[in-house]
Amino acid sequence: MEREDKIVVMPFCQQDVEMHDHDFFELAYITGGSALHTISDADGEVRSGEVKAGDYFIIDYGSRHSYRECRDFTLINCLFLPEMIDDTLADCRSFEEVLRVSLIRYYKWCFGQTSANRVFHDEEGRILPLILGIQEEYQEKKVGYTEVFRCRLTEILILTIRKIICDSKKDDREIQPRSTAVLEAIRYLDKNYRERAVLKQFCREYHYSQQYISRKFRQETEMTALEYLQKIRIEKCCELLAGSDLCIQEAARSVGYEDVKFFCTLFKRTLNMTPGEYRKTAAAAMQY
Question: Where is the HTH araC/xylS-type domain positioned along the sequence (predicted)?
Answer without folding.
Answer: 183-281
